[in-house]
Amino acid sequence: MIIRNVRILGGEPVDIRVADGEIAEIGPGLEGPETVDGGGAIALPGLVDLHTHLREPGREDAETVQTGTQSAARGGYTAVHAMANTSPVADTAGVVEQVWRLGREFAHCDVHPVGAVTVGLEGKQLAELGAMADSAARVRVFSDDGKCVDDAVLMRRALEYVKAFDGVIAQHAQEPRLTSGAQMNEGVISGRLGLTGWPAVAEEAIIARDCLLAAHVGSRLHICHVSTAGSVEIIRWAKSKGWNVTCEVTPHHLLLTDDLVEESPVGAYNPIYKVNPPLRTRADVEALRAALADGTIDIVATDHAPHPVEDKETEWSAAAMGMVGLETALSVVQEAMVETGLLDWAGVAQRMSAVPARIGRLGGQGQPLEVGAPANITLYDPSVRTEVDPSAFASKSRNTPYEGMTLPGRVVATFLRGRATVLEGKLV
Ligand SMILES: [Zn+2]
Questions:
Q1: Tens digits of per-residue pLDDT, 258-316?
Q2: Which whole number is the average pLDDT over 95-99?
Q3: Distances from the Cα of 151 to the Cαs of 71, 209, 224, in angstroms?
């Protein structure tokens, strides 16, 4: 198959010949029996998400492995890491293998289960990290995401344990007592609205502690969804010491701010903006963008968090936290990072494909589009601007904060090892 007229990382137009799931040839004027017209789209290595909630097993009303990975494919992803806060929790070899098998059978992209750090995400006892690493799912990323591993001794043990198989602990940094009952970013707006504040220090204190712990035991630490300027400063300092710390930012924290809770196109107190960690201030957004540009923040991860309508369309304090994000991630990153001149397409490819694959230790993903590489390819047209229409999502859930917003760009096609999962913007 020939993929015609694409611009690798935004470069000169070329054709790509794909054979046996790999890139066999790159050049102008390639001929073959079967062709796909790229129409001058940008070709990126297939995107890799380090932080996706697929909700299966247990909350198939919100998402399944099948619908979540359809959503991923439409967003240009060829691999996702499925978070462990399912029901039952993915804290044993049995459950991670179940998710891995569902991925093999039904998925539209590769599915890599994340293992829980503690049994039942309860923060009391380490889960079977070694058994999950040795299982067919070959788990390398462990996280209690949704909850913080707040016990310093357990966190230290987890960091020590995963060294044996080159694993990484992905921490959801949220000091629980400082955020008891918290509803939104602690600041001027939370004060005015009378909602319990979620202070930046609750995130920053855990990040500082865990950077020190990771350095102390010489292990790998990854920080999920960094949301404050202070967190960025701490991570910059930890990296300057040469410590093995990586971190992610979500698309929504690169674009949206806490004042949307007070005033937005969908009114005040709209739980569509309720998310963990909360939307922060304009100054935080600016710091996150600068940190993603300069490499202090390593990657963009979606934290795709589908919820059924009844869990979101309720009063603010009762609503579930989280937003879907797979199908809008690349557009939001274009808006926040590319249109602002902070990143070029090579920079986007690093932060949404190569580096997340490296952190997750995925061999066959995130490789540059070169001859011999697996044909994991995303074709993206950055020149269009369209209104976000959640009814068109492949996800089972519709809880997007971008409904009605006009965002740039469109995923034209996604190829997983040479097989199209999306063509002309539609699932294959
Ligand atoms: Zn989280």
A1: 999 999 999 999 999 999 999 999 999 999 999 999 999 999 999 999 999 999 999 99
A2: 98
A3: 35, 11, 17
CA nearest 360: which of 306, 419, 301, 303? Answer: 301
Residue 118 C-alpha to ligand 1 middle, in angstroms? 15
Percent of the chain with pLDDT over 70: 100
Q: What is the pLDDT of residue 82?
A: 98
What is the average per-residue pLDDT within 375-398?
Answer: 97
Could you tell me the pTM of the whole model? 0.98
Residues with CB under 5 A from ligand 1 (ion): 145, 172, 224
User: Separation of 337 CA from ligand 1 center, angstroms?
Assistant: 23
Please give the distance, rounded to the nearest whole angstrom, from the Cα atom of residue 276 to the centre of ligand 1: 6
pLDDT score, position 373:
98
Distances (CA, A) of 312 to 7, 53, 72, 268, 273: 40, 16, 21, 14, 10
Shortest CA distance to 123 belongs to which of 160, 87, 85?
Answer: 85
SS3 of the chain: the string is CEEEEEEECCCCEEEEEEECCEEEEEECCCCCCCEEEEEEEEEEECEEEEEECCCCCCCCCCCCHHHHHHHHHHCCEEEEEECCCCCCCCCCHHHHHHHHHHHHHHCCCEEEECECCEHHHCCCCECCHHHHHHCCCCCCEECCCCCCCCCHHHHHHHHHHHHHHCCEEEECCCCCHHHCCCCEECCHHHHHHCCCEECHHHHHHHHHHHHHHHHHHCCCEEECCCCCHHHHHHHHHHHHCCCCEEEEECHHHHHCCHHHHCCCCCCCCCHHHCCCCCCCCHHHHHHHHHHHHHCCCCEECCCECCCCHHHHCCCHHHCCCCECCCCCHHHHHHHHHHCCCCCCHHHHHHHHHHHHHHHCCCCCCCCCCCCCCECCEEEEEEEEEEECCHHHCCCCCCCCCCCCCEEEEEEEEEEECCEEEEECCEEC
pLDDT reported for residue 403? 96
CA of 193 to the centre of ligand 1 (A): 24
CA of 135 to the centre of ligand 1 (A): 24
Supply the residues annotated as catalytic.
303
Tell me, in angstroms, the distance from the centre of ligand 1 to residue 251's CA: 14
For 176-189, what is each residue's pLDDT tens digit? 999 999 999 999 99
Q: Measured in angstroms, how far is the CA atom of residue 49 from the centroid of ligand 1?
A: 14
